[in-house]
Design goal:
With 139 residues, this protein is mainly α. Helix content is 71%, strand content 0%. It is globular.
């Protein structure tokens, strides 16, 4: 991977993490309050994220013939809808029970919220288990 690509990835990750910290999404109690409809502040974060993504994708698809740092756009991978729905359901249940989403959990570790380490270890164990299961399944 090119140095420029790595730099852009690092910069994007830092910006993403700063946004998560600023929105307080790195605190599970804030997320749980949102999911219980007690504090709808994260709805503003969601709205800003969707609006920004929509605008950027509209601009990118109209004015860019190829990515800035890659030779071409890549297609979407072929994935089973059943696997996607199963994964989304597991993700949603885990998020609802713990109030921890993977991105904010990692950003929270960077902010010194060490209680999130248990969730990140669970995330890594789940990713390993998925890889093991898929290799046994032949997928």
């Amino acid at each position: 991977m090119k140095t420029a690509s790595l730099f852009v990835i690092l910069l994007g990750g830092m910006l993403f993490g700063a946004g998560l910290a600023l929105s307080r999404m790195i605190q599970p109690e804030v997320v749980l309050a949102f999911l219980r409809f007690e504090d709808m502040g994260l709805l503003l974060v969601l709205g800003a994220a969707v609006t920004t993504t929509f605008v950027v994708y509209q601009i990118a698809t109209r004015f860019m013939r190829k990515p800035v740092l890659e030779p071409r756009f890549s297609g979407r991978p072929e994935v089973s809808r059943k696997d996607t729905l199963t994964g989304a359901a597991l993700f949603g249940v885990g998020w609802g029970l713990s109030g921890v989403c993977p991105g904010p959990a990692i950003a929270g570790l960077g902010a010194g919220n060490w209680a999130l380490l248990v969730s990140v270890l669970g995330l890594l164990a789940g990713a390993w288990l998925h890889g093991w299961w898929m290799s046994r399944r032949g997928g």
